[in-house]
Amino acid sequence: MKNFKYLLIMIVALTLTVTSCSNDDEVNDHEYRLEYIGAISADLPEEFIYGQTYRINITIELPDSCHYFYNQYDYFYEGTSRLIYPIAHIDEGVPCNLNITETTFSIPVQALQNEPYIFKFYQGEDADGQDIFLTIEVPVI
Q1: Is 46 left (phi over 0), alpha (psi -120 to 50) or beta?
Q2: Distance in angstroms (rounded) separating the CA atoms of residues 14 and 8
Q3: pTM of the predicted model, to two decimals?
Q4: How far is it, in rounded angstroms, from Cα 31 to Cα 95?
Q5: How many whole angstroms separate alpha carbon 16 and alpha carbon 10?
Q6: Which residues of 101-131 are buried (b: 16+ CB within 10 A; e: fewer)?
Q7: Which residues, 6+ apart, have CB-to-CB distance to 31 below 8 Å?
Q8: Residue 83 burial (CB count, 10 A)
Q9: CA separation (Å) from 69 to 1, 74, 81, 90, 101?
Q10: For 50-87, how does the pLDDT look when each residue is reduced to its tens digit (9 = 90+)?
Q11: DSSP class of residue 94?
């Protein structure tokens, strides 16, 4: 009986070891990259009240099923301007379908300056490789 317990423990340990070392993870591995994706619209209030916090809604367009948005964006200060660059995760080496989808995300903004805020939402690049922006000015009262 004592040998049976040891044999049973060894079988369970061996089974756990084999299943935990499975190579199934390799099946789901794929390459991806991150890149800026263009905003198509932004919903901002007509004015900010100094000291209050607002949520700005930004809508982006994902061109195919290989583009995903995980609420990532770069937010840069440039004087009284704020530059917002949405970031898309793009799967590579997998089949994609060409369904264009829109998604909206929001960012918090606290009005802490007396000057108007100038928001510049990245929309892509022109033929010369220069960034194009959707620019919206919001006064502060």
Answers
A1: alpha
A2: 10
A3: 0.76
A4: 12
A5: 10
A6: eebebebebebeeeeebbbbbbbeeeeeeee
A7: 91, 92, 93
A8: 17
A9: 58, 13, 24, 9, 11
A10: 999 999 999 999 999 999 999 999 999 999 999 999 99
A11: S
In one-letter notation, the amino acid at residue 118 is I
Q: Which residue has the tokens 């756990």?
A: 16
CA atoms lying within 13 Å on the CB side of residue 77: 5
- 117, 82 in Cβ contact below 8 A? yes
Kindly state the percentage of the chain with pLDDT values over 90.
72
pLDDT over 60 (residue 110): yes
Q: What is the dihedral of CA 61, 44, 137, 130, to 10 degrees?
A: -10
Q: Which amino acid is at 22?
A: S
